[in-house]
Amino acid sequence: MMIENAFYVANPPTLPAGSKSQAEQLTPMQKYIEKLVFTDLTGTSTEKVLKQIRKMHWNDPEETAFVVKTLGSVWKYKYYNIRYGASLIAGLISYHVSFFIFFRCWLVAGRAKM
After folding, report:
1. Cα–chain-centroid distance for residue 67?
2. What residue ranges do the domains of the chain occupy?
3. pTM of the model
4. What is the DSSP letter of 36?
């Protein structure tokens, strides 16, 4: 058993050509958005994160959909940052009406993929 484990650690099995890798491949912008929301968002940095997210390309539907999906993934927030995430959503709604429409449709559709 230990020999098999050591073998698979040293030489992991390859995935079939049609399947995705275990970790979803994200663009650098998507990684940055997740970093802002899940890592950098705290009580003192809420305004800074809001300013950075407001600078995103809101005319790009894929980027807007990713921001909506990321902010709506409340289960990924640290427990004590959930209120800051809600305040971030409220701040974005006051600046971008399209964000409100996307977010509401995303919630109503049962978090279906847009």
Report:
1. 6
2. 27-108
3. 0.69
4. I
Q: Provide the b/e sequence for 17-46 (b: ≥16 CB within 10 Å).
A: eeeeeeeeeeeeebeebbebbeeebeeeeb
98 vs 26: CA distance, rounded Å = 23
Q: Which residues contact 77 (CB under 8 A, 6 or more apart)?
A: 37, 38, 41, 85
Say if residues 65 and 23 touch (Cβ distance below 8 Å): no
Q: From the CB of residue 97, how many other CB atoms can be counted at a distance below 10 Å?
A: 10
Residue type, 97: V
Look up tokens 């800074």; give the residue.
Answer: 48
Q: Which of 19-28, 43-52, 74-83, 102-111 has maximum average pLDDT? A: 43-52
